[in-house]
Specification:
The protein is α/β, with parallel strands linked by helices. The protein has 13 helices and 19 strands. It has a domain at 4-67 and 101-171 and 270-347 and 378-389: FAD/NAD(P)-binding domain (3-Layer(bba) Sandwich), CATH 3.50.50.
Length: 390
């Protein structure tokens, strides 16, 4: 008898898990609260540790067709615009794929793969309650319907009902940083480089999307005022321009073109203590942002969800009872906790001020000249990790 799995959430983590499970013979139904498969947001960076999973899922052709292969990452002094350090990805890591993708393109790619493989996606399924008190997970929808799930995979995001059912409510705290995000038209063929423009108390990241037809902008500012934790808030583009008015002409030129911008407050959430539970007649596991929300300063939110989805499917394929989920949690929690901590560290490094900022930039310049590959090699533990090899 085919094992049935219910997946909560048709985001990147949920769709990756669903596709990997279907390919291993499970009957998968994805419950999504929206009325259509869409991804809020704009660009994302797919590092090699995530790209290798997408290829193993059979999405390599679609990934290359998205025309988002990255050439380099460049750190710049935000005020002068001068390069501080350039990491030449194609020269230093020619065998690894770094990609820039529009979020909507990745979600469409995963959803199309899932449907082609026989997975089901049910829309308008808003889950109000996840109940783990019985023999198997029970879901209560906003319409009052009750759904029982033998195997429940919850990729229901920052405000996960399943996370609360497993761990209780947890407190997030405002990092005193906010981020604007915007997408601009770009001249096709723009140099596929991710630029990080660093300044006192703020930084801006930009890279081209869809073969250079669009440019993604994420701009972060430190501030004391609290901002709601939401991706859906809109802001006046002038506020962003004023925050970066001391930056280089290149940055100001991009921001002068922004007509529509979203703003969200950056909150730090603890990595969940409990990711899974085995019940008498079922099991539940959380993954992605439901398990380990991260700040966006290492571009690993989507990558961690992709890794989670593959490894969870491998674990359940080997033991559909869910009894091996504890070991899966231990392995994934150790890795994702390290990634979350590294992202927190980048936030501080990008925003240095005063003499310390000048010394740090000088150190990066000298290091890049003497040992060009050193800065990138510091992340071999992250980008060189291949979860598809077990």
């Amino acid at each position: 008898m085919t094992q049935e799995v219910t997946v909560l959430g048709a985001g990147i983590a949920g769709l990756t898990a669903a596709l990997a499970l279907v390919q291993r013979g499970f009957a998968v139904t994805v419950l999504e609260q929206a009325d259509a498969i869409r991804e809020v947001g704009a660009g994302l960076q797919i590092s090699p540790n995530a790209a290798v999973v997408l290829r193993r899922l059979g999405l390599g052709v679609a990934l290359e067709a998205a025309q988002g292969r990255a050439r380099a990452v460049r750190l710049c002094d935000g005020i002068s615009g001068e390069p501080v350090l350039t990491m030449d990805l194609m020269r230093l890591r020619p065998d690894q794929g770094y990609h820039f993708l529009h979020r909507a393109d990745l979600v469409d790619m995963l959803a199309a793969g899932l449907r082609a493989a026989g997975g089901q996606i049910r829309l308008l399924q808003r889950i109000e309650t996840v109940d783990l008190s019985g023999d198997m997970p029970r879901l209560l929808t906003a319409q009052g319907a009750e759904v029982s799930a033998g195997l429940l995979v919850a990729a229901d995001g920052l405000h996960s009902r399943a996370r609360v059912a497993l761990n209780g409510a947890s407190e997030a705290f405002f990092t005193h940083q906010v981020a604007w995000r915007a997408v601009l038209p770009e001249t096709p063929g723009a140099d596929p480089v991710a630029e990080v423009h660093m300044g006192p108390g703020r930084h801006l990241v930009s890279y081209p999307l869809r073969g250079g037809r669009l440019r993604n902008i994420v701009a972060v500012e430190e501030r004391r005022a609290w901002v709601e934790e939401s991706w859906a808030l809109r802001d006046d583009p002038m506020e962003m321009r004023l925050a970066f008015e001391s930056f280089s002409p290149r940055v100001r030129g991009w921001l002068s073109q922004v007509e529509d911008v979203h703003l969200w407050g950056l909150f730090r959430h603890p990595v969940a203590e409990i990711w899974q539970r085995v019940l008498p007649k079922g099991a539940v596991a959380i993954l992605g942002d439901a398990a380990h929300p991260t700040l966006p300063f290492l571009a690993q939110g989507a990558a961690m969800g992709i890794e989670d989805g593959w490894t969870l499917a491998e674990t359940l394929a080997a033991d559909p009872s869910g009894r091996s989920l504890g070991r899966w949690q231990a392995l994934r929690r150790a890795r994702t906790s390290r990634i979350v901590a590294a992202a927190n560290g980048n936030a501080r490094a990008y925003h240095l001020a005063g003499p310390l900022r000048g010394l740090a930039h000088l150190g990066l310049k000298l290091g890049g000249a003497v040992m060009p590959g050193f800065a990138l090699s510091r992340y071999d533990w992250l980008y060189g990790h291949d979860v598809t090899k077990g």
